[in-house]
Amino acid sequence: MKNIPIHSFLIDDESSIPFQLVELTKEGSYDTSIPHRHNYYEVFIFEKGGGEHNIDFQSFSIKDQSIHFVSPGQVHNVVRTDQSKGYVILFSRDFYPSGQSRLREFPFLNNNSEKPILNLNLQNFHIFQPLIASILIEQDTIDSFGKDLIKSYLNTFLIHCKRLFNTTINAITSNNDSVSFNFKQLIDTHYLQIHNVAEYAHMLNCSEKQLSSASKKELGVSPKELIYSRIILEAKRLVLFTNHSFQEIAFFLNYQDASHFAKFFKGKTGYSPSYFRENGKKYL
User: Fold this and answer.
1) Do 179-283 and 19-168 have the same topology in CATH?
2) Which residues pair with residue 186 across a beta bridge?
């Protein structure tokens, strides 16, 4: 099994794809049925469904008129039937026209939702077809305006997704100025280095009590639980989908040694890292 790189996926680098829109029927440069991850975004647009899409230990059926979102760092694999068809949009954080901070506001990106999926009726799905057609046209143009137009279409695409996500999933997008929203963003950026609630409270210019109250009220969990859940998510990715030693994983996650990491992992999952590595795929 090929090792998933043990780095944070927090920034774009030379492996990032600025932008591509490709048909799912075409052969790619790698086998999408093998668990993998990228440091860019992928948006799968399924016109015709069939198969399963596994994203971070959750399995989602691929349905007709559905859109699936995969963010940088998420481990996923797509097992499609021959009948399924559609497109996938790939884009880097640096390509997005409104900046990286704006991408964190979308409820289906960056670990903001446990179900980053839109299953749509035909009427809502038709909203996206002209945008896809326009992007395909601009990809083949050579004038200087094509890139700007694609950025505009991508922005429109994601805004439509945000509206439909809030409507169809009955989700409420967090107030972007709220303590809990900013707390989640800070965790996603600093979870490797900072495990202490007090440090996050200091960064947010509030007391630990205020942070705890906001987290429990708006997110339903304590600040410490939210920090631990993000660490455990990354730990599961690395334990199950890489061959890195537990010592390497422990150091990466800022634990003193493998024994401290193993105790933490078992306390949160109920399994030792070694057991999860050997048996974890049945818990997907």
Assistant:
1) no
2) none
At 3, the pLDDT band (50, 70, 90 cuts) reads low
- Which pLDDT band holds residue 1 (cuts at 50, 70, 90)? very low
Which pLDDT score is estimated for 110?
Answer: 87
Q: Can you give the residue ranges of every domain in the chain?
A: 19-168, 179-283
pTM equals: 0.87
Centroid of chain to Cα 218? 21
Q: Whose CA is closest to 229, among 91, 112, 95?
A: 112
The residues, any chain, with a CB within 8 Å of residue 96's CB and separated by 6 or more, are 102, 103, 151, 154, 155
Q: What is the DSSP string of 192-247?
A: TT---HHHHHHHTTS-HHHHHHHHHHHHSS-HHHHHHHHHHHHHHHHHHH----HH
Q: How far, in Å, CA of 19 to CA of 27, rounded?
A: 18
What residue ranges in the chain does DSSP mark as E strands? 19-23, 41-48, 51-55, 58-61, 66-70, 76-80, 85-91, 117-119
Please give the CATH number for the structural domain made up of 19-168.
Answer: 2.60.120.280
pLDDT at 76 over 80: yes
Contact 92, 150 (CB under 8 A): no
- Summarised one tens digit per residue, pLDDT across range 6-24 is 566 767 777 788 999 999 8
In 3D, which of 23, 16, 32 has the Cα closest to residue 139?
Answer: 23
**CATH 1.10.10.60 is held by the domain 179-283:** yes
Instruction: Give the pLDDT of residue 280.
Output: 78
The secondary structure element, H or E, covering residue 124 is helix 122-125
Chain centroid to CA 57: how far?
12
